[in-house]
Design a protein that fits this description.
It is a single chain. With about 375 residues, the chain is mainly α. It has one domain (about 30-50, about 65-355). It contains 15 helices and 2 strands. The chain has helices spanning about 50, 65-90, 100-125, 130-145, 150-160, 180-190, 205, 210, 215-220, 225-240, 245-270, 295-300, 305-310, 325-335, 350-355; strands at about 130, 340. A two-stranded antiparallel ribbon has the order 1-2. α3 packs across α4 (about 130-145), α3 (about 100-125) packs antiparallel against α10 and α6 (about 180-190) packs across α11. The longest helix has 28 residues, at about 245-270. It is globular. The N and C termini lie far apart (about 40 Å).
């Protein structure tokens, strides 16, 4: 999961054409291929079919699974799990402080929205463009979530959109057979197992626009440093608030390990549960099983409205129903009002109506 990535101050140019976006953005929804958008940088044009029309086996060969890779992944995934078990015991014994819980909640909101607004909607899908400082802040915040550097994360996600629930999808739960054992194996793979298998990122194929962004390249390379900062920051905050070693350890436990564990599980659940259970009010490709799962709305910051996202992946807002909470979209709207982001792709009522399945009534 460890990756590597940073660009210059944007200049708003509404007439710039769609540049360097691989088909995981556009070809996963062919009707969007003609959409016009100006990017932060100006990488070479590539055709819509150049990336996703090629079969997945034409990706760069995946690196061989190594013990070091699996060990690092195990530490990143199971370390927070063990920390959460210890924190639960402390909570049961009434040994958790309000200050440590507050640190955990605040950092969860910051790093989670950095992941959803920065990594996902800004970098991977180009749902909006951000001023340079705003872009950097969002990507740094997302990097603190410990889900990999921005380049590898985006490359894998674009690949997921291009091959959703068919061969080539990095984390589909539907490729292990239809038997009960196969379904369980697929769900486990989509939720967690795929992390232990090196993925053929093929960055030049999937993210040429991001590779041309020097800011993102630098930030991606700094990901190991952000991993350390992700735990050092809550520990320092805990010490600053309490002035004690116990407060520092509590900050590390709650604001570090527990926060990372819950955020990881929220993201993993979108990959697994949101392709297994929930509603499908919008049309997607026949193989695409992306679903809306309302139970994940708060913890996933609106990423759970996965069916619409796969139907219209470049939208800045995923929850379009009256009661569909999408805090990431609310954050983007605030940033737009402050002129910190521009060219936001908000949903259009006519487009939504055209994409809606006729057998599913619209929410009122």
């Amino acid at each position: 999961m460890v990756s590597r990535t940073l660009t210059a101050e944007l200049t708003v140019s509404p007439t710039s054409s769609n540049r360097g976006l691989s088909a995981a953005i556009d070809a996963c929804r062919p009707e969007l291929a003609s959409a016009q958008v100006s990017d932060v940088s100006a990488p070479p044009r590539i055709s819509v079919t150049e990336a996703a029309s090629r079969p997945p086996d034409q990706d760069a060969r995946a690196p061989q699974t190594s013990r070091a890779h699996q060990a690092i992944t195990a530490v990143v995934v199971f370390g927070p799990l063990l920390g959460t078990a210890v924190a639960a015991l402390m909570l049961f014994r009434d040994q958790a402080s309000v200050a440590n819980l507050a640190v955990a909640v605040v950092l969860y909101l910051v790093t989670g929205h950095g992941l959803t607004a920065g990594f996902h909607r800004m970098c991977t899908h180009r749902a909006f463009r951000a001023r340079r400082l705003t872009k950097i802040v969002l990507v740094v915040a997302g990097s603190l979530a410990l889900e990999g550097g921005v380049l590898g994360w985006s490359a894998n996600h674009r690949r997921h959109h291009a091959y959703t629930d068919v061969e080539g999808d990095p984390h589909s739960p539907h490729l292990s057979g239809r038997s009960l054992i196969g379904q369980l194996r697929g769900a486990l793979h989509a939720h967690l197992g795929w992390l232990f298998r090196p993925q053929p990122e093929a960055r030049e194929r999937w993210i040429p626009d991001l590779l041309a962004d020097r800011d993102l390249v630098v930030l991606d390379r700094l990901f190991p440093l952000f991993c350390l900062a992700s735990f050092a920051l809550p520990a320092l905050l805990g010490f600053a608030i309490s002035g004690s070693a116990a407060g520092m350890l509590g900050g590390l436990l709650w604001g570090g390990l527990v926060r990372v564990f819950v955020l990881q599980q929220a993201t993993f659940a979108v990959n697994s549960a949101c392709h297994l259970w929930g509603t499908r009010p919008f049309r997607t490709r026949r193989s695409d099983q992306a679903r809306n799962l309302a139970a994940l709305a708060v913890v996933s910051f609106g990423e759970n409205w996965h069916n619409l996202h796969h139907s219209l992946p470049r939208l800045a807002r995923h929850g379009v129903g009256r009661h569909e909470w999408d805090s990431t979209a609310r954050l983007i709207a605030i940033l737009e009002k402050l002129s910190l982001v521009v060219e936001v792709r908000w949903p259009d009522a006519d487009v939504l109506s055209a994409r809606r399945r006729r057998d599913v009534p619209e929410e009122r």
